[in-house]
Design a protein that fits this description.
This protein is mainly alpha-helical. The protein has a single domain, classed as Glycosyltransferase (Alpha/alpha barrel), CATH 1.50.10.20. The protein contains 14 helices and three strands. Strands 1-2-3 form a three-stranded antiparallel sheet. Strand 2 and strand 3 form a beta hairpin. Helix 2 packs antiparallel against helix 3. It starts with 6 loop residues before the first helix and ends with a helix. The N terminus and C terminus are likely disordered. Bound molecules: 2-acetamido-2-deoxy-beta-D-glucopyranose (10 copies).
């Protein structure tokens, strides 16, 4: 995830497009299954409007500018969820093609032409989509192609190999490559995603090594206080590696809370341990910061009220909704609270999907009862995931290798000695020059964003 050059252009477009807002909203009646089917098929269609990968000259698996590669991984995860919850296989061929085209040269979701910008978190969102495909029994790829479980294990293994015990007593750095801005930051989404993948692989495979890894990552995150240990179990953004991880950046993002919540839910469901049960319940309780206290409608508290959510952040409620749905199905004691939140938010999100020339473009703010003039892949994904996850208890829980999951894996996937699988890649002269340019561009866009905020 990065600072986004596109946000300046996007925000000027918004002003224009608001003028074209239409007054017809999707009214979601959760007691009428047909209503959810109709509404979500329109929203899913709208999501796929941003997909250009099957057009001439474009890359299979990628969405149009300004969506980074990582968000495509997030979006395919949402489309797998759409297929699963709504039992609509219209897009399955596109999903399969996209997920397989982007596996990269070594079947680990590090395609070389993304490697200059790819961080641990970016890789993880593709890994999570592959894990979901395994747990939902999404059709398996042809035998000569890498399988879903294999891909999830390759992502987990390559991330685990980057565990950095040389500073702060452990943790993953944000970036894979030393030249990228953010290499000195140990962020929660990278570590939370490693924890989350470990939890899901533990439950799917039954291999206790993954439980050990989940515990290692959790303990480290607690030790540097990105998980708060007070009245509420809040999850913070990350820590700087340069001062022994003693400075916590305290932004709270819904997807980080969700990664740890659902990870704890998988671990509880698998181990039946009280420790994970308590953690899941505490993380859920603290999740209330992402719901309006009077209406119960979900929002991205750190940026939505101030209108500063960048392109990446606009998709966070999608993953949060997904992780809430998983938690409800894995930890029965959480389901009442979660379904209340999801049902309320889904109805509000549907009302916010009434924009654009198609009349069902989704906005960012779900509080208003209508479209707020924002639009984009993230907005579309968030509304879709929130709406379909109202079915979390009506569909079977995630499968495991013991109860119906058919995907084949390999515990050693991704451990071959390719450069991208190792801790920090050594920089050659040429790549350093390229990296300098990228850093400069990111630097300029930070300044641009800052100026935009000031004015
Ligand atoms: C769903 O869509 C179908 C076909 O467009 C329509 O006939 C039906 O009335 C819709 N049902 C609901 C509940 O919106
Ligand atoms: C499945 O989704 C597609 C595209 O969103 C839609 O056109 C179609 O009507 C949906 N089918 C059903 C049965 O809902
Ligand atoms: C990147 O590499 C993939 C193969 O991994 C290729 O299909 C694609 O065209 C390349 N270019 C871009 C811009 O993604
Ligand atoms: C750095 O932090 C780790 C973990 O919090 C701690 O165990 C270690 O003692 C610290 N080292 C120094 C030099 O402060
Ligand atoms: C968190 O609080 C509990 C209970 O007060 C305590 O047992 C535990 O050691 C604390 N953990 C950390 C990492 O401070
Ligand atoms: C959430 O935690 C607060 C503070 O400990 C507590 O007062 C409240 O009862 C909890 N709510 C739920 C639903 O567990
Ligand atoms: C919660 O919703 C109410 C009613 O829409 C609104 O007035 C209030 O500003 C919202 N609170 C926050 C923190 O956004
Ligand atoms: C949420 O909506 C579903 C229908 O989609 C319903 O079965 C469930 O009882 C509702 N739950 C709550 C807590 O409102
Ligand atoms: C684990 O999840 C499954 C699938 O949703 C559920 O049926 C089961 O009750 C859960 N187990 C526990 C111990 O809560
Ligand atoms: C369990 O996972 C570990 C770590 O990925 C691996 O080394 C080991 O071979 C696996 N064990 C089995 C029985 O698959």
């Amino acid at each position: 995830m990065k600072f986004n050059k596109g946000s300046l252009i996007t925000s000027s477009l918004l002003v224009v497009s608001t003028l074209f807002a239409q007054v017809c909203s999707l009214d979601l009646d959760l007691n009428d299954p047909k209503s959810l089917v109709n509404a979500t098929s329109l929203v899913a269609y709208g999501l796929m409007d941003y997909y250009t990968g099957d057009q001439y000259g474009k890359t299979v698996g990628m969405f149009s500018d300004p969506y980074y590669w990582w968000e495509a991984g997030g979006a395919w995860g949402s489309m797998i969820d759409y297929w699963w919850f709504m039992q609509n296989d219209t897009y399955n061929d596109k999903i399969m093609a996209a997920m397989l085209h982007q596996v990269g040269e070594h079947n680990n979701y590090i395609p070389l032409n993304q490697s200059t910008t790819e961080g641990n978190d970016d890789q993880a969102f593709w890994g999570i989509a592959a894990m979901t495909a395994a747990e939902r029994n999404f059709p398996n790829p042809p035998e000569d192609q890498p399988q879903w479980l294999y891909l999830a294990q390759a992502v987990f293994n390559t991330m685990a190999l980057r565990w950095d015990a040389d500073s702060c007593g452990g943790g993953l750095r944000w970036q894979i490559f030393t030249w990228n801005t953010g290499y000195d930051y140990k962020n929660t989404v990278s570590n939370g995603a490693l924890f989350h993948m470990a939890a899901r692989l533990a439950r799917f495979t039954g291999n206790s090594s993954y439980v050990d890894w989940a515990e290692r990552v959790w303990d480290w995150m607690e030790s540097v206080s990105v998980i708060s240990n007070g009245t509420y179990m809040f999850v913070y953004d990350g820590v700087t590696a340069t001062d022994n991880c003693s400075t916590v950046t305290t932004y709270q993002w819904s997807y980080n809370q969700g990664l740890l919540l659902a990870g704890s839910a998988f671990l509880y469901n698998h181990t039946k341990s009280d420790v994970w049960h308590e953690r899941a319940k505490k993380l859920l309780n603290a999740s209330q910061v992402f719901f309006n206290s009077s209406t119960g409608i979900m929002y991205e508290a750190a940026c939505q009220p101030s209108l500063t959510c960048n392109t990446d952040q606009r998709s966070f409620k999608a993953y949060f909704s997904r992780f809430l749905g998983l938690t409800a199905s894995l930890v029965p004691e959480t389901s009442d609270q979660i379904m209340k939140w999801l049902n309320t938010s889904a109805k509000a999100a549907a009302k916010a999907c009434s924009g654009g020339t198609d009349g069902h473009t989704c906005g960012l703010n779900w509080f208003t009862g209508s479209w707020d003039g924002m639009y984009g892949l993230g907005e579309q994904m968030a509304a879709l995931e929130c709406m379909i996850n109202t079915r979390a208890l009506e569909r079977p829980g995630p499968y495991t290798a013991q109860n119906g999951g058919t995907s084949k894996g390999d515990p050693a996937a991704g451990t071959e000695a390719y450069p991208t699988n190792l801790a920090a890649l050594h920089i050659t002269k040429g790549s350093r020059a390229g990296a300098g340019i990228i850093t400069a561009i990111i630097g300029i866009s930070i300044i641009a964003c800052a100026l935009w905020l000031v004015f």
